[in-house]
Design goal:
Blueprint: E1 5-8, E2 11-15, E3 26-29, H1 32-40, H2 47-64, H3 70-84, H4 92-108, H5 113-143, E4 149-154, H6 169-178, E5 182-188, H7 195-207, E6 211-214, H8 219-224, E7 228-233, E8 237-239, E9 244-247, H9 250-259, E10 264-267, E11 273-274, H10 291-294, E12 295-296, E13 299-300, E14 313-316, E15 323-326, E16 329-331, H11 335-344
Parallel strand pairs: 4-5, 4-7, 5-6, 7-10, 8-11, 10-15
Antiparallel strand pairs: 1-2, 2-3, 8-9, 9-14, 12-13, 15-16
This protein binds 5-S-methyl-1-O-phosphono-5-thio-D-ribulose.
5-S-methyl-1-O-phosphono-5-thio-D-ribulose (MRU) binds at residues 45-48, 91, 156, 158, 162-163, 168, 195, 234-236, 246-247, 312.
């Protein structure tokens, strides 16, 4: 099993996703600042993985603290959370995880400092285990929607590497394959960071799931040729009305899916649903460094001085989304109702 991130006695250990697929190396963060840095630089990426990483980073900061009193520890917690919240703006799982750690702290306030620290470490570990269980539950729900055979297209990486394990969109594909479905995955390469060709293809090859990498601009033609029976992607934030922020290029795929009569599914945990955000226009979109677009493997691909845009995410309007697969069940339009109903129910996921 791929260990995306892990709590160890030495610190939080991450597989370095900037080096895959050619090098499988690991980074151990010993401080919360180092964890914030690996989130910012995308050594770890993918909404659920970012959330768990932040929780572990906060736990690490608490563990390293020399505070003698609860008030002092709280001041340090606030600083760490503030710093963690500045790493990446779009994936709501980051803010969900920070809030969960803060709320846990508040419930523990009356306890001795040593106990608070230990319980926050346990909470972060619990979030790791819960994420894997949620993905497996999502897989069980979503597998029923996958074709019994044929092509399934995905964009970016919403796999084990983007989560604590198993994956959201790739979890659905994994569960369908485990149920005996004969699926062939088409992985969009996902420019500019190449999460599809570098990461999705790497983890599916490890599992022996047949995979074809295509460049992003091939998706429409492949759909038109009848090779794709369904599309499944992940999400970084889902607004209350069902608008979905995900990796740049997802919107294009969704529109093409509609044009070609192909179901477009989004798989995401309830922690990705932001009911406080009414629609996609309110979702902050991260702008990343122009160099990700201008250079490939260190080589400049554009003329000097040309203007570049690099939004990391786009928003797919809910009207293009066939269904949203969560660990608590499948939501369909009208999403205002179905999502708020699912978000309001107790988790039935067993860890
Ligand atoms: O910039 P990234 O690599 O963090 O973006 C990742 C995505 O857009 C994923 O599709 C999304 O986070 C869902 S991961 C289960």
């Amino acid at each position: 099993m791929i260990q995306t991130l892990e709590w160890t006695e030495q610190g939080v250990r991450f597989i370095d996703q900037t080096k895959l697929p050619t090098e499988e190396t690991y980074v151990v963060c010993k401080t919360d600042e180092q964890v914030a840095e690996v989130i910012r630089t995308m050594v770890v990426r993918g909404a659920p993985a970012i959330g768990v990483a932040a929780a572990m980073g906060i736990a690490l900061g608490m563990k390293n603290s020399h505070a003698q009193r609860v008030g002092e520890l709280k001041q340090e917690l606030d600083l760490i959370c503030d710093n963690m919240g500045k790493t990446r703006p779009t994936a709501v799982n980051l803010f969900w995880a920070i809030r969960r750690m803060q709320e846990k702290f508040e419930r523990l306030r009356v306890r001795p400092v040593a106990q608070i620290k230990q319980e926050l470490i346990e909470e972060a570990k619990r979030m790791h285990a819960e994420d894997i269980a949620a993905n497996q539950a999502m897989g069980r729900h979503g597998a029923t929607l996958m074709p019994s055979e044929g092509g399934v297209l995905t964009h970016c990486n919403a796999g084990a590497l983007a989560t604590a394990g198993y994956g959201t969109a790739l979890g659905v594909i994994r569960a369908a394959v485990e149920a005996g479905k004969k699926i062939h995955v088409y992985a969009d390469e996902t420019r500019p960071f190449l999460q599809g060709s570098r990461l999705t293809a790497w983890e599916l090859m490890k599992d022996g799931i047949p995979t074809t990498v295509i460049s992003d601009n091939m998706a429409g033609a492949i759909m038109k040729q009848g090779k794709i029976g369904a599309i499944v992607v992940g999400a970084d934030r889902i607004a209350a009305n069902g608008d979905v922020a995900n990796k740049i290029g997802t919107y294009t795929v969704a529109v093409l899916a509609k044009e070609n009569g192909i179901p477009f599914y989004v798989a995401a945990p309830i922690s990705t649903v932001d009911l406080a955000c009414p629609d996609g226009s309110k979702i902050p979109i991260e702008q990343r460094n122009a160099r990700e677009v201008s250079h490939i493997a260190g080589k400049q691909m554009v003329p000097d001085g040309v203007s570049i845009e690099n939004p990391a995410f786009d928003v797919t309007p809910a009207k293009y989304v066939t269904a949203i697969i969560t660990e608590r069940g499948i939501a369909r339009a009208p999403f205002e109702e179905s999502l708020s109903k699912l978000a309001g129910t107790e988790s039935k996921v067993q860890v």
